[in-house]
Amino acid sequence: MKTEWLLAAACAAFPAVPSALAQEAQLYCAGNDALVRFNDAPLPAGDNSRWATVAPAPANRCRLANGSEVVMRARQTQGTPWGMGGGNREAVFSLWADRKKIVSREEFWPHVMRADHDYTTNHALYSPGAIHVCRYAKGQLDLRQTENVICEKRRVDLAKLPTDPLEPKDDADLGKITFTSTYNAAFCESFIARKGTKSEISEHGNTFRLGRILGGDELAIGKPGQALPFAYGQATTLYERRVVSIRVAQFDMLNIGEVQTVVEFAGQHSMFNGNFFMVRDGVADEADLRKLVDLSKNATQQADEMEASAYGGWRMLRSREGDNTEHDVIRIADMTFVLARPSFEQDGPDAVLYRMTDGYRAFTPVCTFQSVWPNL
Predict the structure, then answer these.
(1) In 10 A of CB 372, how many CB atoms?
(2) Rounded-to-integer distance, Cα 339 and Cα 238, Å
(3) Per-residue pLDDT reduced to its tens digit, 207-239
(4) Is 61:73 a contact under the CB 8 Å cutoff?
(5) What is d(CA 370, CA 77) in angstroms, rounded to the nearest whole number?
(6) Which residues pair with 277 in a beta bridge?
(7) Given a cut of 50, is residue 56 above it in pLDDT?
(8) Secondary structure of residue 54 in the 3-state scheme
(9) DSSP per-residue codes, 127-139
(10) For the chain, which residues make up each domain, given as ranges?
(11) Which residues touch 220 (CB under 8 Å, ≥6 apart)?
(12) How far apart are CA 197 and CA 2, in angstroms?
């Protein structure tokens, strides 16, 4: 979430990808063949008759007549708010036979469709020894027309492929939240509601909730009814537009037993999606706050430039995760913590809980949380 004063991205208009379509991929198995259909589109005439009566494989997992177990997974990738087709998501799929990966994160629906450039995929057919990936003509959006579907054959020598070291034997651990603790494991564990239990934190009282993945664990941090520094209605809004907000609160952000003025800058703009903080000792007067807001509106680059331009005792606070990070300020046992989580899908943990200090970096990691997501 980047603020209005930061570098804007000029995005050309391209057809949006219907999210409902991009989510649909289904595995079917018959004999020694495994078919992946996309978007529930009709198959070319020669294939429709054979597969018309075959039921979808439960949980996209099946066993062929020769004993091979085939698994398919698909998902939408994370869209970004900038660039060509910004906000759209592409959809990808992977396919395994006997825990050996034969297709890896292959796109079947692009995040932006340009005539004579991008393809959508009608189906993929795996048989021992080969896989056929069959696509529509470039730029074709009408999935009902299959006359121009062209198949690409790829050889698959299963005996020579390595076993995917990340592919589990089953999905029993999906949704499990693992963690590492810097100081006290019981403190970190206390925020996790394990599978089959209920979180004690109400839906509207918590500051952060990592929803259960396929019925797995849940991460919830905060207390019901807790007055949090930047909760809705608590902080004072200094500036607000559709993609940016600037709010101020006074509390002990740095855990030094004294009040600081903390200004939160949050927005979704250009190459920034998240929030960061400017802090100074004591209670800043209205003139100092206005100068800070004006400074931010005149900056022309990323948050780094604003940090370099800081003046008058203001100091920037943001975690090492970077610009595309959302930070939730939480008060626990009369101490200030910040939960950092990525705004977009990216490598790294799902969330890091930091205790705030008055040191150079200010963010001291306390708990690192990671969910077990489906292997893709």
Answers:
(1) 18
(2) 23
(3) 566 666 667 888 887 655 555 677 655 678 887
(4) no
(5) 18
(6) 264, 317
(7) yes
(8) coil
(9) ETTEEEEEEPPTT
(10) 19-160, 177-371
(11) 191, 193, 199, 200, 201, 206, 208, 209, 210
(12) 37
